[in-house]
């Protein structure tokens, strides 16, 4: 069997297969992957520095890590020979004993996944959390028991290669164009997301954001029982905000789940994530007191609307996970005035002009970084001053001066990080380091 890609998911998949007696080759384009070396004693053959076609065409099964394009020539060669090609989450799900709670959406997946796991743990359930964040699903198989809830963040890259993957609860938070550097069209991206509902039946649940028409359309063909949530309150039944509480509104009763005062997250859009998690908790049977305790103790994830600190009256917020235009839009809308966002990176598609109106209302200036600097300038410079910075250090220093005396510097890139950084987390960490250096200087 061939596993493609030696990042976290690929290494976990190779180990899972090897420990179950398979002859495994882990194929990776990089020549130096020290984290894969512990697989050798398990009998895993490491094919580093490039992919050999025979490794794919002579395999019984090909397992793709999320970062590997399914259109890769060697992967297509395997398909042409009739060899099954599946995602890592598909492989892992075939060995799980517990039930899967899968969470997808263009933005908010990580926060909702982490918070859902905390709610269920607080309620006394056995829970594992991971997938696209934390431990890959393949690394959770050994912990799986019939009473385990596997809370899984599922990206479009993972979902597009499933076959039998069937969540007990599937959550779709929102949908907007993203990853158009990988998916050929918005429609193909949407089709990949919608696969989260594909194998569900009437015994399962689909948790759906009723405020998002695109989500309603993508979920329309699903067979699972629909559980809606809507921050607007525009639904007769489902999870809504009422009287300062997140509540479960049914035909004859309204049950309080979580008070809004327990939420300590920056940005009103994050209330949606709490509502989605609370809806899952209610389905699973978590007590409202347990859900409230989990929310009250949750201060968000690193790199997701993370308050870094304050320097000379200027606040710094790290939202490096805002890797698409829609996410950056929500970040920007979380502030009222004197905002200086740092925008740019490796552009993934979308319309940067969508940021114009919220920036006109809130921003003193914009600092553009990365490959997308010309695109940011073209989209925004006639409306708000745009300064281009060659490095993140330069960007932070410029934004700091522009935001004085009492503004907010917001890292909300609306772009991927791979032009300048290893990943969004590396970008976020370096942003925090540069903010720290302001004090030293």
Concise account of the structure shown:
With 441 residues, the protein is of the alpha/beta class. It has helices at residues 8-19, 53-57, 73-80, 88-93, 109-122, 156-159, 186-194, 213-218, 270-284, 288-296, 325-332, 356-362, 373-380, 392-403, 424-440, and strands spanning 2-4, 25-28, 45-48, 62-64, 85-87, 99-104, 126-131, 148-153, 169-172, 205-209, 225-230, 238-242, 245-249, 254-259, 306-311, 314-318, 339-344, 366-369, 386-388, 408-411. It has three domains: 2-83, 3-Layer(aba) Sandwich (Rossmann fold), CATH 3.40.50.720; 90-296, UDP-N-acetylmuramoyl-L-alanine:D-glutamate ligase; 306-440, Mur ligase, C-terminal domain (Protein-Tyrosine Phosphatase, Chain A, Alpha-Beta Complex).
What's the topology here?
Blueprint: E1 2-4, H1 8-19, E2 25-28, E3 45-48, H2 53-57, E4 62-64, H3 73-80, E5 85-87, H4 88-93, E6 99-104, H5 109-122, E7 126-131, E8 148-153, H6 156-159, E9 169-172, H7 186-194, E10 205-209, H8 213-218, E11 225-230, E12 238-242, E13 245-249, E14 254-259, H9 270-284, H10 288-296, E15 306-311, E16 314-318, H11 325-332, E17 339-344, H12 356-362, E18 366-369, H13 373-380, E19 386-388, H14 392-403, E20 408-411, H15 424-440
Parallel strand pairs: 1-2, 1-4, 2-3, 4-5, 6-8, 6-9, 7-8, 9-10, 10-11, 11-12, 16-20, 17-18, 17-20, 18-19
Antiparallel strand pairs: 12-13, 13-14, 15-16
